[in-house]
Write a structure and sequence with these properties.
The protein is an alpha+beta fold. The chain has eight helices and nine strands. The protein has a five-stranded mixed barrel. The protein has a four-stranded mixed beta sheet with strand order 6-8-7-9. Helix 3 runs parallel beside helix 5, helix 5 crosses helix 6 and helix 5 packs parallel to helix 7. The radius of gyration is 19 Å and the shape is elongated.
Length: 246
């Protein structure tokens, strides 16, 4: 069956002398591996279209029982050249796409997650904002889109950041009271960050004054949360790159 789907390039692995196997996050089929013959040839058009983090329209022959599909054609859907040439933007994109690659499955589409990822990559490419502060927001949104979103008591709307707040891992909520199980006490700036993320007040997040240690700590807390609630989440290889922008 010839399939057509918007897709995001997640990974590329060399195959024989001139080809590559490209892993895609497709809107129609979830994670899909496609064989791109002649990818490494000098005149191949795919090298410019199917770079890491590219958003494309993919045309491929799809058979459910086959582990690797065959590409027929691909066209650029959204330009991401600015992201690929900006180390800070690329570091954020790499961390996000590695995390997404861990949680999506072959043959299991997630339209909401796909649409969010495509929209974010477009925003990231076009923005003049610093992307340094964004990863905890992406973790929070990913949890929501996977059906394990962090919940907050009603007081969160007017919560004073200096008051003691806990991220409760087992119950999946932010509260004034820690769980009997694993809980992390949040600093005032971490509380304010989570407030903005959960209340949709995201415009101010890139400009927040959060120091490196607190940002790394918040990312760690949210990684623990995701590992507890979502199968497949593990330490990211891309963190060695991402941590260079913190």
């Amino acid at each position: 069956m010839l399939a057509e789907s918007p897709a995001i390039v997640l990974k590329a692995v060399d195959f024989k002398e001139s080809s590559k196997i490209i892993t895609l996050f497709s809107r129609e089929h979830g994670k899909v591996a496609v064989l791109v013959r002649g990818f490494k040839r000098k005149k191949s058009r795919y090298a410019g279209i199917m770079a890491y983090g590219s958003v494309i329209d993919a045309f491929y022959y799809y058979k459910e029982s086959r582990g690797v599909q065959t590409i027929k054609d691909a066209e650029m859907r959204i330009g991401t050249v600015k992201t690929q040439s900006d180390f800070n933007k690329l570091a954020v994109a790499m961390a996000l796409l590695e995390l997404i690659s861990q949680v999506i499955q072959e043959g299991e589409p997630n339209d909401e997650l796909y649409q969010f990822t495509e929209s974010f990559l477009k925003w990231l490419n076009d923005t003049v904002e610093s992307p340094r502060n964004l990863f905890p927001y992406l973790q929070i949104r990913l949890a929501e889109l996977l059906g394990v979103g962090i919940q907050a008591d009603e007081w969160l709307t007017n919560k004073a950041p200096e008051e003691v707040v806990y991220l409760n891992i087992l119950s999946g909520n932010v509260s004034e009271v820690p769980d009997d199980g694993l809980s992390f006490k949040l600093s005032s700036v971490q509380t304010r960050y989570i407030q903005r993320a959960l209340l949709g007040q995201t415009a101010g997040i890139p400009k927040m004054n959060i120091d490196t240690q607190e940002l790394k700590q918040l990312i760690y807390h949210l990684d623990v949360y995701l590992k507890h609630h979502v199968d497949g989440v593990r330490d990211r290889k891309s963190d060695s790159v991402f941590e260079q922008i913190l």
